[in-house]
Write a structure and sequence with these properties.
single chain, 354 residues, EC 1.11.1.7, calcium, two-stranded antiparallel sheet, secreted, heme binding
Length: 354
């Protein structure tokens, strides 16, 4: 009996010990699991995150209810005077979001000589700053210190597409403005018009954007222009041997050579020949026909996902789904690296930190 009781006591002690160990292991497992999840979240929510936490449609409905109406009115006036301003405003938003995120760093003047994003070579041809300033000034008169320059950029891009016949989307707002702008970061982060498909995919992926987003957002080139200098190598010195890019349609290349002289001299060129002032899917027809002016546009045919999108939009009735797709990808791009809540500031003037 004594031995039996000792065995039972020993068994109970062991059971209790094993139960304690089991509970400790469960706790440790939960801790490790939580830690792993935190690592994963940290990995996907760096400075180029696209979660857009803190953004929402109608953010200014109470604090500045006329903000979007004022922006639209001011932008409509600018585009009525010069329709090419629409493409400029759309491009400003792109170039802002791809460097430090959508926080209006592209608008800042340099604190030191030549050290702001707008001083970087990819941004030399940016324009439309005056229109953004006009919008900011008009909104400040109505609601001082409320609406960020970053949100004005997003609204201007949306309205530029809308006013050139494109689709409308409910742009999310609630961004705040950053305080840092460095030319080297623009050089490092902006995709080049000479990028091949591998470089483009890597660049977009680094911002949390997919291959479909790449194909869709390239459609921004439905409006806008470029220069002979940008495509000069494709026409006259593609491999350094005085040759023409074989990816260009030969007849189209001949037409371009009549306009563009060796060395880059010549007129301004429509990115979407014959339809550069209308936001539509015509751009994809040109790309499919090997008439995309930029190397980056032609490269869309070199990946099965982007090529399929080009083909679909070039054959569907007036690019039936392009407008919807563009709005969704623009919303997604507009969430990259946003500052919200107490981050950043609301600039009084878009070219200067407070």
């Amino acid at each position: 009996q004594h031995n039996t009781n000792s065995f039972i006591a020993t068994t109970d002690t062991l059971a209790a010990a094993f139960d304690h160990i089991h509970r400790e292991m469960a706790v440790q497992t939960r801790v490790v699991s939580i830690f792993f999840i935190q690592l994963v979240l940290l990995a996907v929510s760096g400075p180029n995150r696209v979660d857009g936490a803190g953004l929402r449609t109608g953010y200014y409905d109470e604090s500045c209810p006329d903000a979007e109406t004022i922006a639209l009115k001011t932008i409509r006036k600018a585009i009525s005077k010069d329709v090419t301003v629409a493409a400029a405003l759309l491009r400003l938003h792109f170039h802002d979001c791809f460097v430090r995120g959508c926080e209006a760093s592209v608008l800042l003047d340099a604190a030191e000589e030549g050290d702001a994003e707008k001083d970087a070579s990819p941004n030399f041809s940016l324009r439309g700053y005056d229109v953004i300033d006009d919008v900011k000034s008009a909104i400040e008169t109505s609601c001082p210190g409320v609406v960020s320059c970053a949100d004005i950029l997003a609204l201007a891009a949306r309205d530029a597409v809308r006013l050139t016949g494109g689709s409308f989307w409910k742009a999310e707002t609630g961004r705040r403005d950053g305080r840092i702008s460095l030319s080297k970061e623009a050089e490092e982060n902006l995709p080049s018009s000479n990028f091949n498909i591998a470089q483009l995919k890597q660049n977009f992926a680094s911002k949390g954007l997919t291959k479909k987003d790449l194909a869709v957002l390239s459609g921004a080139h439905t409006i806008g222009v470029t220069s002979c200098f940008v495509i000069n190598d494709r026409l006259y010195n593609f491999t350094g041997r005085s040759d023409t890019d074989p990816a260009l349609d030969p007849t189209f290349a001949t037409e371009m050579k009549k306009k563009c002289k060796p060395g880059g001299g010549g007129p301004v060129l429509e990115l979407d020949q014959g339809s550069s002032t209308v936001s539509d899917a015509h751009f994809y027809k040109a790309v499919r026909q090997n008439r995309g002016l930029l190397t980056s546009d032609a490269s869309l045919l070199n990946d099965h996902v982007t090529r399929a999108y080009v083909k679909r939009q070039s054959t569907s009735a007036a690019g039936a789904t392009f407008g919807w797709d563009f709005g969704k990808s623009m919303e997604k791009m507009g969430r990259i690296g946003v500052l919200t809540g107490s981050e950043g500031e609301i600039r009084k003037r878009c070219a200067f930190v407070n």
